[in-house]
TrEMBL record:
It comes from Olleya marilimosa. Its EC number is 2.7.13.3. Residues 82-132 form the PAC domain. It catalyses: ATP + protein L-histidine = ADP + protein N-phospho-L-histidine. Keywords: Kinase, Phosphoprotein, Transferase. Residues 161-377 form the Histidine kinase domain. Residues 5-59 form the PAS domain. This is histidine kinase. It comes from the Bacteria. PANTHER family: OSMOSENSING HISTIDINE PROTEIN KINASE SLN1, TWO-COMPONENT HISTIDINE PROTEIN KINASE. Pfam families: HATPase_c, HisKA, PAS_9. SUPFAM superfamilies: ATPase domain of HSP90 chaperone/DNA topoisomerase II/histidine kinase, Homodimeric domain of signal transducing histidine kinase, PYP-like sensor domain (PAS domain).
Amino acid sequence: MLKTNQDVFEILSEAISEGILIVDENQTIIAVNSSTEEMFGYDKDELNNKPLEILIPKNYHKGHGHQFDTYYKNSEKRTMGKGRELYGARKDGNTFPIEVGLNPFNVSNKKYVMALAIDITERKNYTDKLEKTVIERTKQLTEALATEKELNDLKTKFLSLVSHEFKTPLTGILTSSILLSKYKLAEQQDKRDKHINTINSKVQYLNNILNDFLSVEKLESGKVNYKFTEFRLSKVINEVIYNANMLLKEGQKINYPENIDDISLIQDEKTIELALSNLVHNAIKYSPENTIIQLKVQQDQINTTFTIIDNGIGIPENDQKNIFNRYFRAENALLNQGTGIGLNIVKTHIENLGGTISFKSIENVGSTFIITIPNKPN
């Protein structure tokens, strides 16, 4: 380029913050401004008369020469890399995202190409961060919508469940009370007793449901006060099994845990009894006749572990993630009485006492529930 033109280029280009470089038909760098040298990590005048390829990452060298020749012959103003990302190569070998605009021009009947280069690292980082944020927010929204749908489904199931759970015993109570009025003779006392027992059991069942709802309310409001005392575990186990024996189906049996006479705990006795009763009653309810329910106990220096094993209907794999959710009932358990509150109450109580509850289950094979509780409050 002519000296005068070079002077004009230097005056104009140094006033521009973007990188400017000029190349000839041989892709030789004729001139650059200081912004280009700083952007690519070169000293002053170090890029002059160097091949353009030193500013292009090696993995892009193969096709660049042909692309440049094609552009040079049909030169027009345009932006490089439309629809794809461009990268520049610094002197130290590091690459960075770049935006390049091409402008052909003629000086003394000789054609040159001026490139305007902008380092878009910050912009790309912002864009990438924004894209990640959008993807994450979209994911969160999708999960929230799925959760809301799941909750709505649970509410619908719960309303249907509660309606059924209250309607069935109330119908039994009404039927028995009507039939009672028909048995007026002294010799019909046994029939009257049968219906009185039916009414009592149905009322007790409804009372248990209401107590479950009250337990939920107390747990949510933080009104539960635990009473920690030292007690022999065998006392609680005996109470749980005694009550459970009255619920056993034909041929069912509960295996009493071994070697528990010397085991003691400092815990809330009633809560431990409630948790074990719930799990043992579930094992009975969801197991067929002529099956064994196993109750095992182990204690070390820190924790006591209770394991309840049944050979019942099990929990379908798709339902297992929700089994501790309030009001949830597995699809294969909907025909059995229950509100879906018990396991949620047990889990909340056990965790309040510093323990954990977990389970393993295979549909149509059986379930194993494990409670681990500290031997004394933390």
